[in-house]
Amino acid sequence: MSQKPHLTLSLAKPDNLNAAVALNGCREILIEHRDLARVGFLDSEGCTALARDAKAHGLRTVLVWDLLLSDNQLLAGAALIRGLDLALFDAIRVQDAGAARYAKDAFPHLERQLVLETGNHNLPGILSWIAAIEPRRVVLSNELPMPLVAQIRAAVSVELEYLALGRLLIFYTPRKLVSPVTTILAEEQETVERFVTSEEDGKNKHFPLIENQHGTFMYYEKDMFLVPYLAEMAAAGVDYARIDTKFFDDAALLAALQVYLADSGAAQVAALKALLGPRLTRGFFKSNRTDKQFKRLKNKYLAVRDDAVYVGEVLETKKKSYTALKSEQAFAIGDCLQLQNPEGKVSTTTIQSIRNSSGQAVTRAEQPGIWVVNHISGASAGSKLYLDLTAPEG
Question: Structurally, how many domains does the chain consist of?
Answer without folding.
Answer: 3
